[in-house]
Design a protein that fits this description.
Elements: E1 2-10, H1 15-33, E2 38-46, E3 49-57, H2 64-78, E4 91-97, H3 101-107, E5 119-126, H4 135-152, E6 159-172, E7 175-188, H5 194-204, E8 218-221, H6 231-234, E9 237-238, H7 243-246, H8 267-284, E10 290-297, E11 306-310, H9 319-329, H10 334-341, H11 370-374
Parallel strand pairs: 3-4, 7-8
Antiparallel strand pairs: 1-6, 2-3, 2-9, 5-10, 6-7, 10-11
Helix pairs in contact: 1-2, 8-10
């Protein structure tokens, strides 16, 4: 059966992604000084101001000036120095307080860490790409990264930081056969024409997609015709508003919790990373070709209340058997997840743009459980 599936990505200059990067930049700064810090930082960007809000409990002394320094450094790195308002000169408001003692009471158990909140988290892996990610989101991220690259290296110097990409892949059953449609919206200055921009994007950005997939592909480049005003000047930004871009492009379920700005006692983040780690190792070990894993927690309780596996009919064992294997082979308590994946380290800024999964240098992308899982075949 022929079917089509679409995923999108956004560049690092998208206003929501700007906020994610500030949130994770602050988190990494705090963790570098206090690995046991509790942090839940959210940001809102709107035209000429950035608001930093949330909770931080730490032995490190973080001042409003520190928050502003980190924020302006990230804004400058992204490249917001153009337009009628240069966002690197924005006003910064800070409203940060300590973590609620009611939450801390549930997390700070005497012998083990309780989950920082209730909720369900999902992981996913499949064989469509080398990194065991769905092809549409993988290609959308590559296009978004390339947009930023050709802007930064001067190949297309008229581009500005904001941008979005979208890829529709045609499948024959479960096998991707071609890219049907590519949509790219790229912020630009006022001098370039629509015709020149489209020609340049097709020449310099589209080639990140393998040529054999570009069969009768439709290209929609800046379909509105103009994209001069972008970033917070054009639209407000908010931490955690791109949760599907951050994960699997809509291919699997999502529990609703955002990642950026949260330390790893928040299972929204740590358990989602663990679920990806488990799924990737299950697929790589040959126990299935595709798998979705759900883990659910209650606040203050260390062990998950449920573990659910769905292999979409591709499992070499039954889904219920695989769920039992997961519970046997992987310690799903928050403290164990943090130890297994090294989540007290300041590694999170690299996740805050172009997805949290599929990047080879991240600890939850390791395949070090494959051999121990193969014994179940």
């Amino acid at each position: 059966m022929r079917k089509f599936f679409t995923s999108e990505s956004v560049t690092e200059g998208h206003p929501d992604k700007l906020c994610d990067q500030v949130s994770d930049g602050i988190l990494d700064y705090i963790l570098s000084k206090d690995p046991n810090a509790r942090c839940a930082i959210e940001c809102c960007a709107a035209y000429d101001r950035m608001m930093i809000m949330g909770e931080v409990t730490s032995t490190a002394k973080i001042t409003d000036d520190d928050y502003a320094m980190i924020t302006r450094g990230i804004i400058e790195k992204i490249g917001y120095r153009h337009g009628s308002f240069a966002f690197d000169k924005c006003k910064i408001d800070v409203a940060v307080h300590s973590q609620s003692p009611d939450i801390a009471m549930g997390v700070d158990r005497e012998n083990e860490t309780g989950a920082g909140d209730q909720g369900m988290m999902f992981g996913y892996a499949c064989r469509e790409t080398e990194e065991l990610m769905p092809l549409p989101i993988s290609l959308a991220h590559k296009l978004a990264r390339k947009l930023a690259e050709v802007r930064r290296n001067g190949t297309l110097s008229y581009l500005r930081p904001d941008g979005k990409t979208q890829v529709t892949v045609e499948y024959d059953g479960k096998t991707p056969v071609r890219v049907d449609t590519v949509v790219i919206s790229a912020q630009h200055n006022t001098t370039v024409t629509q015709e020149q921009l489209k020609e340049d994007i097709i020449k310099h950005v589209i080639p990140v997609i393998p040529e054999e997939l570009l069969v009768k592909t439709k290209y929609l480049i800046n379909p509105t015709g103009r994209f001069n005003i972008g970033g917070p000047e054009g639209d407000s930004g908010l931490t955690g508003r791109k949760i599907i871009v951050d994960t699997y492009g809509g291919r699997c379920a999502h529990g609703g919790g955002a990642f950026s700005g949260k330390d790893s006692t928040k299972v929204d983040r740590s358990a989602a990373y663990m679920a990806r780690y488990i799924c990737k190792n299950l697929v790589a070990a040959g126990l299935c070709d595709e798998v979705e894993l759900q883990i659910a927690y209650a606040i203050g309780v260390s062990k998950p209340v449920s573990v659910f596996v769905d292999t979409f009919g591709t499992g070499k064992l039954g889904d219920d058997e695989l769920a039992e294997i997961v519970k046997k082979e992987f310690d799903l308590r928050p403290a164990a997840i943090i130890k297994t994946l090294g989540l007290k380290e300041p590694i999170f800024s690299q996740t805050s743009a172009y997805g949290h999964f599929g990047k080879p240098n991240l600890p939850w992308e390791r395949l070090n459980k494959v051999e121990s899982l193969k014994k179940y075949l």
